[in-house]
Inverse folding.
């Protein structure tokens, strides 16, 4: 193996670009293949909890990311009528660890790409065949080229082609609920993450920029609805109308169906995060529902951990095993916490005593869970 390992990253989304930045931090320049024509314009927005900032601090990108978004001070949960049910202050954890940030996906991608070296992405390219049975995996690209690498990383999302190659038949599983999302102009926004809830339905919003608000709605649906874009906008408005407050009113003003994204919620669980020298990170390895905002968080934690292990260990096989040992307990804990909240709030059907017994409490069942996920023993240390 060369002094600097030959690393191929398949996928230039959040996890893939975070891994590129992490490897560059250790002087390693990977090859990156992305099937789409760009990393931008493929999503709307997300919340980055404190643990994300802690991970990004390790590769010097925490300030760049925070600068692209809006720091959130608190979260308030209401019932459908708008009456406050619960409140949690983000500011103590923001000060102690790293800020909680609302950010557009494009803003996050731009920040992850803002390092001193340009990101070497081959757009419009992916892997069509992979022989991982040897120390140096052989790769065939979609344009017919062949190459050999010391490590291949599948960061290609929930419908990962790399995962299908190393774990045939492991596919996303629908979790019986769906999400509608949009970003709208809102010049008078604040730094509060607002959630309105009723059994099986949740409406949320937070600022992602000085004049932009991200709004989303989750609802239980035994079957995935088959609707046109215009019908999805109408359904979004219909569901939001069950709540009172400024965000439902703002959603009623949305006129452009192309600015509403509909996503059926799926999960992925793999038997391992690697086979030989092929590693999966992010949604390719462990997609789960968005109820604790940990999808992108786990992808970034994966990327930073893997970059550190590769950059500080000359034995790649040992690094891969250490990655599995470090990440599996953390991901399994977050998955269990998210699943508990999913079933307890009725997103997979009525929250029966039997169902709750099968999914025991992991973190606080209150909004304090956002602090619990930072301070557990598997969190990245400052």
């Amino acid at each position: 193996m060369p002094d600097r390992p030959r690393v191929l990253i398949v996928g230039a989304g959040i996890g893939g670009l975070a891994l590129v930045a992490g490897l560059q931090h250790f002087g390693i320049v990977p090859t990156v293949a992305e099937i789409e024509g760009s990393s931008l314009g493929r999503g709307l927005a997300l919340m980055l909890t404190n643990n994300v900032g802690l991970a990004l601090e390790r590769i010097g990108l925490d300030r760049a990311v925070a600068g692209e978004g809006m720091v959130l001070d608190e979260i308030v949960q209401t019932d459908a009528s708008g009456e406050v049910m619960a409140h949690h202050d983000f500011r103590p954890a923001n000060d102690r660890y790293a800020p909680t940030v609302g950010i557009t996906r494009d803003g996050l991608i731009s920040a992850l790409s803002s390092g001193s070296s340009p990101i070497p992405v081959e757009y419009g390219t992916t892997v069509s065949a992979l022989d991982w049975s040897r120390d140096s995996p052989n790769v065939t690209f979609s344009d017919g080229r062949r190459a050999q690498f010391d490590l291949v990383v599948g960061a290609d999302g929930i419908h990962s082609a790399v995962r299908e190659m190393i774990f045939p038949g492991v596919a996303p599983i629908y979790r019986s609920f769906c999400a509608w999302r949009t970003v709208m102009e809102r010049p008078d926004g604040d730094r509060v993450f607002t959630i309105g809830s009723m059994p099986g339905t949740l409406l949320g919003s937070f600022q992602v920029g000085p004049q932009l608000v991200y709004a989303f709605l989750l609802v239980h649906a035994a079957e995935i609805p088959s609707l046109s874009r215009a019908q999805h906008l109408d359904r979004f408005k219909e569901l939001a109308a069950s709540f009172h407050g400024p965000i439902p009113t703002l959603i009623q003003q949305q006129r452009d169906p192309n600015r509403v994204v509909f996503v059926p919620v799926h999960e992925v669980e793999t038997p391992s995060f690697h086979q030989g020298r092929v590693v999966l990170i992010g949604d390719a390895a462990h997609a789960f529902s968005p109820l604790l905002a940990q999808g992108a968080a786990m992808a970034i934690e994966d990327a930073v951990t893997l970059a550190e292990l590769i950059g500080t260990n000359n034995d790649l096989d040992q690094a891969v095993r250490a990655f599995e040992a470090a990440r599996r307990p953390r991901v399994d804990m977050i998955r269990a916490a998210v699943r508990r909240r999913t079933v307890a709030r009725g997103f997979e059907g009525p929250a029966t005593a039997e169902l709750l017994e099968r999914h025991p409490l992991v973190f606080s069942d209150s909004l304090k869970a956002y602090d619990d996920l930072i301070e557990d023993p598997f969190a990245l240390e400052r």
